[in-house]
Amino acid sequence: MSELTTYDLDDGIATITLDDGKVNALSVAMLGSIGDRLDQAESDEAIVVMTGRERTFSAGFDLKSEDWPTMLAAGARTAERMLSFPRPIVVACNGNALAMGAFLLLSADHRVGARGDFKIALNEVAIGLTLPYFGIAIARHRLTRPAFDRVTVTGVILDPDEAQAAGFLDEVAEPGDVRGRALAAAERLKGIDMNAHHATKLRIRADALAGLADGIDRIQNPERGV
After folding, report:
1. Boundaries of domain holding 106
2. At what angle do helices 145-154 and 133-142 cross, to 10 degrees?
3. N or C, which terminus of the chain has less Cβ within 10 Å?
4. pLDDT tens digits, 186-210
5. What pTM was computed for the model?
């Protein structure tokens, strides 16, 4: 499954690139490959820069999947892993980030997005899906209060500058500068104490992580409501 992603380690920074040749649909296989790469980065004690294809970070879950419960659980566990990863994760968002792709964006520690005609959204309601409980926990934690209500309930599509104001992104840069800005952020993050970073991350995100755990349990026990 690892052909869906690549891994490059350079001076303590691991770059994980998602590339399925299309829109980086987060299938069970793609999510498994991301997990493999995060395992590798953790073993290498590396800061992570995660990025995608030209113009697209990820368009979200694979809508053609025949095993939605497994895919949903894999997506939730990937977000949980990112939110609690022992070292910083920076996302270089090349362009579009939709649905589960936007949830991965919200699960990183620093997010750099490309300025331009790109779409960032939690657009589940627009395509007939009720937002899963694990996603609500992530969105509530990372988005501004007014944006949280608006983007989840209406599925509104935001441009990168609007997405920064809402809390999806920390920086917006010209497309050709996104990866460089993300690597620069990762380089700066080398200067923090990683033990303190991890311990503080777990404290700050305790409620979100508890919500994620509950959301995963709901997927595994659908009678509770996913």
Report:
1. 2-224
2. 150
3. N
4. 999 999 999 999 999 999 999 999 9
5. 0.96
